[in-house]
Amino acid sequence: MKNKIEPQVTLVGAGPGDPDLLTIKGAKALAEANVVLYDALANEELLSYAPKKALRIFVGKRKGCHEYTQDEINQLIVDNALTYGNVVRLKGGDPFIFGRGSEEIEFVESFGIPTFVVPGISSSIAVPASQGISLTKRGVSESFWVITGTTSARKLSSDVSLAAQSTATVVILMGMSKLDQIVALFQKESKGEMPVAIIQNGTTPQEKVGIGTVDTIQKIVAEKNLSSPAIIVIGEVVGDGKKNVAFYNELKSHHNKVLVYGKE
């Protein structure tokens, strides 16, 4: 008698890019997968944790280039679970931090399919940490904001304006296309001297970093050719980062000099 298919879906956070930053629980989930649907921001090295016979389906999205729409991805998850059983949905960072993980879980559960979530290490925290940037620091920063730079309506989040008025560290994901607007908001609050770090492809061998201020960061981005995927960190903690303090101190002494560094 043919074994009955027992569908289930596990949402796994792939971490910020370095494959070693996948959690042990995430690796165990992949090892039991019959199908893995993975994103563009999930390191493909992680697919080696899945059985050789497991189906691997790329459903990644990049700016201006979508392999599948979100509705199509939702349906693919369900179809594969009903056909093959154990599906792992592998998403970059943490699936519940601007990852549409909750939308996918809700859709799958509407079909009565059991779901599980394995949290991932969010790039919003791990990428700055990899550069020695502590998002909170006693006497410097009491809190931090994590904001999407681009909303579902393709506009800059209104929370950026509110964050610019605070003393908190501000971390902006998916914000490179809105950098000019972000800079203008901070300049409006007289924060042109505020330190800024932009980290592209953080925690990977392709990592590139630009360090500057609100007033200089656009020039740095142009000269370094920084682009998405990148994290924008704005706050005094950038200047205190153990890897950045010497660069930032020199930048403050020579305000017109552009300083950038990174791994080519």
Binned, the helix content reads 25-40%
Query: How would you sum up the major sheet?
Result: 6 strands, mixed
Class of the largest domain, according to the CATH hierarchy?
A: Alpha Beta
Shape: elongated
CATH superfamily of the largest domain: Tetrapyrrole methylase, C-terminal domain
Number of strands: 13
What is the subunit arrangement here?
single chain
**Total individual domains:** 2
The fraction of residues in strands falls at: 15-25%
The chain-level mean pLDDT equals 90
Coarse structural class: alpha/beta
Pick out the low-confidence regions.
254-264
Strand order of the largest sheet: 8-9-12-10-11-13
How much is the radius of gyration in Å? 20 Å
Q: Tally the helices.
A: 9
Instruction: Write the element-wise H/E pattern from the N-terminal end onward.
Output: EHEEEEHEHEHEHEHEEHEHHE
Distance between the termini: 57 Å
Second rung of CATH, namely the architecture of the largest domain: 2-Layer Sandwich
Pathway: Porphyrin-containing compound metabolism; siroheme biosynthesis; precorrin-2 from uroporphyrinogen III: step 1/1
GO molecular function, one term: uroporphyrin-III C-methyltransferase activity
Family: Belongs to the precorrin methyltransferase family.
Protein name: uroporphyrinogen-III C-methyltransferase
